[in-house]
């Protein structure tokens, strides 16, 4: 067993190898504080036949024993990955994927199993470093190592891998990953920070990444296996030349068509003609013919952009496609916004619910619930395709989380707006950057719903095509530019600053200069989009939808909570049944009453206020007779609170039998005359009877 140590963010990072999972291609146990993650990387012996992509799988396996929990639900074992686990798997996949050779077709699987979690050291960063190290020491031809760090910012100071307490006070949560020389991936949420601070944080993180890569290189030098010889997929030269000659000129014309569907139709037609022509000449080489066609297409698009500065749809490099915005498109929902940019269209719907509707999180993190939820749906018809709907993909979950993160900094607090908020973005049409379309549609929808957001948020996706030292940054990339380009860099924010960033690179990293230019160009793009959004709606509506619940907050003494809930929840259930409201009670005595009907809410408030009211000496109550005794009548003056009217206090004259004056169920006015040391309440009816008032029984 070999053990290696280094310091990261003032804490010891330990990587052990040779003790666990020795049959994997490469395996390491990464310890950071009390967090421990086992990462194993394995590759198949042979390439997978008949595919035109690199089959990499990254599985991030959360184990609830790592935080001392038993899984909830009927089946007491971990089920499908949580959203957090899916997002972490994507986080690891994105920086390692570009570092495998083009044409590598062997299956590669990286499995990170979380064994122990110390909340001050989240397992995602150790898992990412572990994935790089496991691949690097294995015989798999990985062109790493890479590393990643989390960067926070408190009082102007940048911090590496902040603790839970530090993260609470941090205005930035940035994860940056890269090689020794360049940045490969950025994922960030920020509280409206300017671009120069974001850039400073990225470069600050990259300085630590460089040290972590050198640390891994030393491990590889000591325990690394020799990289296996692999056969990269490459079409035969003869086929390559023949296809190029046949297709290039026609493909250039097709690519220049600005309409996505017409362009795709032309390209598809040429692809079919190409396949049919060469099927007769090279009957068993269909894969080579198809691969060469795609390669020529990529070269044409990239050359047009970098050399000629022409985009497939004829736009300028920094031009945003036509934008239109609409709100209030659905009558019965609580809020809706339709955002269209070119051939990307997103409809986002807001639903407001009671605090009790918040999402319960059964995960490894500190948070156990969240009141703001964003879901993203990408149906096949949005790109003119047919495929079965099988629930959210990893991509759908990632895009939803990005849009969620972009809007969190502008949402009102629970005190200001005591609602659970759910947004659903339905992608109706897509030609690039539907996630940023979701951000814009969400801002419109929230304002339409009357959610008092601090500032509107817009977003734009930037692209990059790099050829040697020449590069072109593109504003508002469409699908083709994303697929055939080198970068997808999404930036969302308010007019004050950035709230979310997601950057993925397909090449071996980018420089500070490119990042600076991309951030500046993105700022201009999203401000242009923002101006158009604000023409549709510029401030949140002052009134909620008539179909949204009204939430009224009252406060009671925390010691009285049990009086409202009752034994086994009996009393609170009765209030809900009687009034039809939803009631959520917090431990500090705050009670949230949600009802579409305000009268029902007021009725519930009155019942609760009576439940927690204290009986006061000298106060008069209208009470109900509950029990009769020889010596007097017990009267309920407040819910669950009884007092005794002694027989001598029932009437002005002498009473022989209690039943002569009152019966069970009678309502009578009584006055509190005494509360003894044991808390017993003595009442008087006699004290309220005026001289000469008839002694009629209330029930007669």
Provide a descriptive summary of the structure in words.
The chain has 700 residues and is an alpha+beta fold. The chain has 14 helices and 29 strands. The chain has an 8-stranded antiparallel β-sheet, sandwiched between helices. β7 and β8 form a beta hairpin. α1 packs across α2 and α5 packs antiparallel against α6. The protein is elongated and about 120 Å long. The termini are far apart.
Brief write-up:
The protein is an alpha+beta fold and 700 residues long.
List keywords for this structure.
disordered C terminus; 8-stranded antiparallel β-sheet; alpha+beta
Instruction: Report Rg.
Output: 34 Å
Q: Please report which band the strand proportion falls in: under 5%, 5-15%, 15-25%, 25-35%, 35-45% or over 45%.
A: 25-35%
First and last CA, distance: 94 Å
Average predicted local confidence, pLDDT: 90
User: Approximately how much helix is present in the residues?
Assistant: 25-40%
Strands across the major sheet, in which order? Answer: 8-7-9-10-21-20-18-19
Q: How many DSSP helices?
A: 14
Global outline: elongated
Number of strand segments:
29
SSE topology:
Elements: E1 2-8, E2 11-17, E3 26-32, E4 35-47, E5 56-61, H1 83-96, E6 106-116, H2 124-137, E7 147-154, E8 157-160, H3 164-169, E9 172-178, E10 183-193, H4 195-223, H5 237-255, H6 260-281, H7 286-306, E11 323-327, E12 335-341, E13 344-353, E14 359-360, E15 369-370, E16 372-377, H8 394-407, E17 420-429, H9 434-449, E18 458-467, E19 470-475, H10 479-484, E20 487-493, E21 498-505, H11 512-536, E22 550-555, H12 561-565, H13 570-579, E23 582-585, E24 590-595, H14 598-612, E25 620-629, E26 632-638, E27 641-646, E28 667-675, E29 681-684
Parallel strand pairs: 5-6, 16-17, 27-29
Antiparallel strand pairs: 1-2, 2-3, 3-4, 4-6, 7-8, 7-9, 9-10, 10-21, 11-12, 12-13, 13-17, 14-15, 18-19, 18-20, 20-21, 22-24, 23-24, 25-26, 25-28, 26-27, 28-29
Helix pairs in contact: 1-2, 1-8, 2-4, 4-11, 5-6, 5-7, 6-7, 8-9, 13-14
